[in-house]
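Risk register update: the risk of archive-format incompatibility is retired. Evidence:
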Amino acid sequence: MTPTLIVLVLLALGVGIVAFATRRPPSRAKPTQADPDTAWNDPITPAGDDPFARATDPAPTAPATDATPPPAKETQP
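Archived output:
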């Protein structure tokens, strides 16, 4: 009998949690705010009109250097 009561109490607790989480908000009117323009649906500029579409990569400012030191010279006995 005790396990049945425990299961029933847990089921009632679960139903209460779901009912609390999904309850309707009060029916008072909330002021609606204007949606800011995010431009997510603006037309895309074609590549022909884009001044940066054919831009080349800038030249590197400094040549790449090798960080490893030169090998040590061996002396013969």
